[in-house]
């Protein structure tokens, strides 16, 4: 997937300025696709040149005009074509998993702080996802089609984090057990 596709989806959900789009990436789209603010602005300029997005200047008091982006017909066509393309299953590069295997050749206890750090990070992300779910989807029975699809993606992220935490707990238990046997 190109960043262009993630931007098109976000702008179809709600037109906005580059700043607003970057904030959405930080808040929600970043759950599954990350981009820096500079990357977003650079791609927006290219998409504007290619005719994928339309730009409307909105006057602001005592500030320069704000550019509000929305998806133009060529952008919607490009997104539709991309949507119909097959997606290959993602290949996972997991450096921590390789380190865990490498721990067999060193003191497994040395890896415990690193695994704990990963666990804390994933626990914090899960907490953010759950807070966002309560805030954005308080009544799942009242969701429109767009919201249902947003929610199902979020639920996938929630389950991924829960699975990752369970796995990291298993890794920690194994490392602790092996570390005790090497003392």
From TrEMBL:
InterPro entries: Tscrpt_reg_PadR_C, Tscrpt_reg_PadR_N, WH-like_DNA-bd_sf, WH_DNA-bd_sf. Gene3D superfamilies: 6.10.140.190, Winged helix-like DNA-binding domain superfamily/Winged helix DNA-binding domain. Residues 92-175 form the Transcription regulator PadR C-terminal domain. Signal peptide: none annotated. Residues 7-79 form the Transcription regulator PadR N-terminal domain. It comes from the Bacteria. PANTHER family: TRANSCRIPTIONAL REGULATOR YQJI, TRANSCRIPTIONAL REGULATORY PROTEIN. This is PadR family transcriptional regulator.
């Amino acid at each position: 997937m190109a960043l262009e596709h993630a931007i098109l989806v976000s702008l179809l959900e709600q037109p906005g300025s580059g700043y607003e789009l970057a904030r959405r990436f930080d808040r929600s789209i970043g759950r599954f696709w990350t981009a820096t603010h500079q990357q977003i602005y650079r791609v927006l300029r290219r998409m504007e040149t290619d005719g994928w997005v339309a730009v409307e200047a909105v006057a602001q008091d005592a500030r320069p005009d704000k550019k509000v982006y929305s998806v133009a017909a060529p952008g919607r066509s490009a997104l539709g074509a991309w949507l119909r393309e097959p997606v290959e299953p993602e290949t996972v590069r997991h450096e921590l998993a390789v380190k865990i295997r490498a721990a067999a050749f060193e003191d497994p206890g040395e890896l415990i702080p690193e695994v704990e750090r990963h666990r804390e990070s994933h626990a914090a992300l899960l907490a953010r996802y759950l807070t966002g779910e309560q805030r954005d989807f308080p009544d799942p029975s009242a969701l429109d089609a767009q919201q249902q699809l947003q929610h199902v993606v979020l639920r996938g992220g929630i389950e991924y984090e829960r699975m990752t935490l369970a796995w990291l707990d298993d890794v920690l238990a194994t490392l602790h057990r092996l570390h005790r046997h090497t003392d």
